[in-house]
Design a protein that fits this description.
This is NADH dehydrogenase. The chain is of the alpha/beta class. The protein has seven helices and 16 strands. The structure holds flavin-adenine dinucleotide. The site of flavin-adenine dinucleotide has 16 residues, from helix 3 and helix 5.
């Protein structure tokens, strides 16, 4: 962290990402975990292990089954549900013998009519089937109105008792953007022209999750890693054009598909085929392979080919040396 200082600029690039949006729902900030940063993910992991530990002592249990409430069935909520079942199986093999496959109860609560509302129907259906096969209780069309100590309350007056809650129901831009005097959308994201310049100041470029960028069909570019990546490429070209007094081109988002990983159980997704943008449904080993490759591609973009190859090698070795789960 640097000390406070003032820097003058000719051109400003903003890429501050996003944070979870609790939409002002009472009790969420106090009783839910968020997964916006590695520190928050670590805090959740710590709390989760303590809850599993408490559950392994029958006298300290709050409910007959260890119950986790996850609000939001987007990719984060869906993937986390499957990961929790995977973790409970692993803990059993680590000596938490009270932890059996039916000891965990995950409630995945979503206001939209289906899980993964932004994805194609075929993926939604396959993912939902797999989640239910694992034992996840999927509540769709269910809006959470408040969260209390030990319970999630829904608009249809259900009170779902829980040991642990995670909020993954949407995003908004960081608070700092409110003080910049730029036009924002209702999720506090900075409104930009298709060229990625703020609608208020052509010297301010904004991209990634914190930009509210329109597409030709009137919809907004979704807050996803592939959108941020594509915008970075367009932004680089527009900056060069700007410095050379050339013409800035509009950003066009191309959906390359989506992949959902359900821990070691399954992976499901679709890939877009060429210019026709017809989607190819994939699942099983092929989807797992593409999911892992995508992760390595991101690593390569950051670290370069040589370092990524070394990371790949060390990850391969660690699979034999290190335990799959850190218990402390
Ligand atoms: C748990 C989780 C899982 C996800 N999974 C997927 C996925 O599978 N596929 C997918 O496409 N997308 C996924 N996303 C979304 C994806 O991470 C984002 O769309 C993407 O990271 C956006 O990139 P960005 O550069 O806009 O923001 P970020 O990657 O969030 O980067 C913004 C950076 O700005 C820093 N920052 C913020 N405020 C300040 C400040 N005031 N001063 C200085 N620095 C600041 C932040 O610390 C952060 O490092 C996931 C998100 C989460 C939270």
């Amino acid at each position: 962290m640097l000390p406070s200082r003032t820097l003058e600029y000719d051109l400003l690039l903003l890429a501050l990402g996003s944070v979870s949006n609790d939409f002002g729902t009472p009790g969420v900030a106090e009783h839910c975990h968020f997964l916006d940063s590695p520190a928050q993910a670590e805090a959740f992991r710590h709390d989760m292990l303590n809850t599993f530990l408490r559950y392994s002592d029958p006298e300290r249990r709050l409910h007959p089954r260890l119950t986790v409430g996850i609000v939001g069935a987007g990719a984060t909520g869906v993937e986390l549900s499957a990961e929790l079942y995977d973790a409970s199986r692993m803990l059993h093999s680590y000596g938490f013998t009270e932890m059996k496959s039916n000891s965990l109860e995950v409630h995945l609560i979503e206001a939209a009519p289906d899980v993964l509302p932004a994805l194609p129907e075929r993926i939604r259906k396959a993912v939902r089937t797999e989640l239910e096969r694992l034992g996840v209780q999927v509540h769709t069309g269910t809006r959470v109105v408040s969260v209390e100590e030990g319970a999630i309350v829904t608009a249809d007056e259900q009170r779902i008792e829980t040991d642990l809650n995670v909020w993954a129901a949407g995003i908004k831009a960081p608070e700092v953007l409110r003080d910049l005097g730029l036009t924002l959308d209702r999720n506090q994201r900075i409104k930009v022209e298709p060229t990625l310049q703020s609608v208020d100041d052509p010297n301010i470029f904004v991209f990634g999750d914190c930009a509210s960028c329109p597409q030709p069909d009137g919809s907004m570019v979704p807050p996803r890693a592939q959108a941020a990546h594509q915008q970075a490429q367009r932004l680089y070209k527009n900056l060069v054009a700007r410095l050379e007094n050339g013409t800035l081109k509009p950003f066009r988002y191309r959906d390359r598909g989506s992949l959902i990983s359900l821990a070691h159980f399954e992976a499901i997704g679709s890939l877009m085929r060429g210019a026709s943008a017809r989607s190819l449904f994939i699942e099983g080993r092929l989807a797992k392979f593409f999911y892992a490759s995508l992760y390595r591609m991101h690593q390569r973009a950051i670290h370069g080919t040589a370092k990524t190859a070394l990371i790949l090698l060390s990850d391969g070795l660690n699979r034999f040396i290190r335990p799959r789960m850190k218990l402390h």
